Amino acid sequence: MIRLGMIDFDTSHVVEFTKRINHIDIAEDQWVEGAKVVAGVPGVSLIMPERVPGYTAAMKKYGIEILDDPAQLFGKIDAVMIEANDGSVHRERAMPFIERGIPVFVDKPFACSVDDARTMLRAAMEKHVPLMSCSSLRYAAGLADARAGKGPAGDLLGAFTYGPAPLHPRNPGLFHYGIHPVELLFTLMGTGCTKVNCTFTEGAEVATGVWSDGRVAGIRGIRAGKQDYGFTMFGAKGVVTQGIDTKYGYRDMLKAVITMFETKESPIDPRETLEIVAFIEAAKASADAGGASIPLKAGL
After folding, report:
1. What is the pLDDT of residues 1-20, one digit of tens each?
2. Residue 197: C-alpha distances to residues 200, 218, 233 (Å)
């Protein structure tokens, strides 16, 4: 049984993930096997500090050992989950564990800069430490088949995803909740985006990328009106639009995370993780430049 630690309690994920992993206060069809959350560090949040006391109380109720410092987890855990809503602190949180060879899951957004993302990924590769980051929407039903050309649209020639994209200065641009539709986009399209154009308004933004094979795809980040998640696939067999079923998203993502902890191999290509960060960074630069085309800086 893998002993898990969690760091930063400003997101409901710490409670929702613990329910599924520790089989407590949740239906059996949501259970995930192979690990147990044993300890956590609430931390200090610069985004949602008001959430920390409540989630800390919930974790205490579940019997989780509460510690004051991430370093106190060393020797108590076999793997760690970095749960801060604030992507700007993820490098600081993750690196001590990567340096000690401890497998790491970093919740979304992986990082708020390509430099931070590249530093973590390079360190993990050099030290052969499993490292993974993603939105749970990556594991929504039907996405894997669609990416492989086995969905109703056939081989994908392009895609357009959408989802809420509220803003926060600690997670600039699409790094806040806009990370979800961007993750959807790359789950469908894979790597190879070379440049991005972004049109920004207070109510929405649209970021469009061009892939090296000539495909074009993009996202709409929604800040006004009805806010749902979904996508349109443009394929060899048809054009298909569908929403996202999130019922088992957490469960299926956690299964992938724990499998990574067991096998020591990430299910996501590190180049794709880096390219997602590079896409968002380029979209922000494009928006700031009035929609100019910005090349991605996504090389490892």
Report:
1. 999 999 999 999 999 999 99
2. 10, 9, 20
